[in-house]
Each structure stands twice: as C-alpha cells, then as structure tokens.
C-alpha cells in the first residue's frame, strides 16, 4: 500500500488550495490550537512539571494535557482559565483586526 504524501502547514499556505476560504479557516484554527498548546508546554517545562503534575494542579487528566499541548483539542475558555491559573498565568483574550494580528 502506498502512503499519501503529507502536506505541512507551511506547504499548505503556499498552495493554491489555501486560496479557498474553508482551507484558510481550518488552517487558522489549527494554528491557534498549536500556538496555545506550545505556550502551555513551554510554561510547564519552565516550571519543571510533568504533564501529570499540571493535570493534577488544573484538575484535568494527564491525557487531556497531552492532547492540549499537541493541538489536538479545541479548548474552551474554562479550560484555558484552569490551565492559566495552574501555571500561575493570567488568561488574556483579545480581538484584533487581521492586519494587527499578523
């Protein structure tokens, strides 16, 4: 069986498919999930905590922390608040014009 070649996010941005609104929207959702997950992972590592320790402090199971850190979930505001509090951070949500966010 032949594997289908995978497309990276950067390759997708440069492709003609990226001109389609649904593709751009899906990309932006994925980008946001990965950015949030990376921020949580970096702070957790800065504190020297395991995923299990962060989960204990946030009241979440370790597999949920792992999925979040890998961009595998679409987080809710309550989840983000729990994680921020457990990490000693303040959750800040902003709405900006697209040109300001780029």
From TrEMBL:
Family annotation (SUPFAM superfamilies): lambda repressor-like DNA-binding domains
Residues annotated as domain HTH cro/C1-type: 40-93
Entry superkingdom: Bacteria
Listed InterPro entries: Cro/C1-type_HTH (IPR001387), Lambda_DNA-bd_dom_sf (IPR010982)
GO molecular function: DNA binding
Protein's recorded name: HTH-type transcriptional regulator / antitoxin HipB
Organism: Nocardiopsis flavescens
């Amino acid at each position: 069986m032949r594997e289908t070649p995978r497309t990276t996010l950067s390759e997708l941005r440069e492709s003609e498919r990226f001109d389609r609104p649904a593709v751009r929207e899906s990309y932006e959702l994925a980008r946001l999930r990965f950015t949030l997950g990376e921020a949580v992972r970096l702070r957790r590592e800065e504190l020297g905590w395991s995923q299990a320790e962060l989960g204990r402090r946030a009241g979440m199971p370790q597999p949920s922390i792992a999925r979040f850190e890998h961009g595998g979930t679409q987080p809710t505001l309550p989840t983000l608040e729990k994680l921020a509090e457990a990490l000693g951070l303040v959750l800040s949500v902003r709405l900006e014009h697209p040109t300001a966010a780029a």
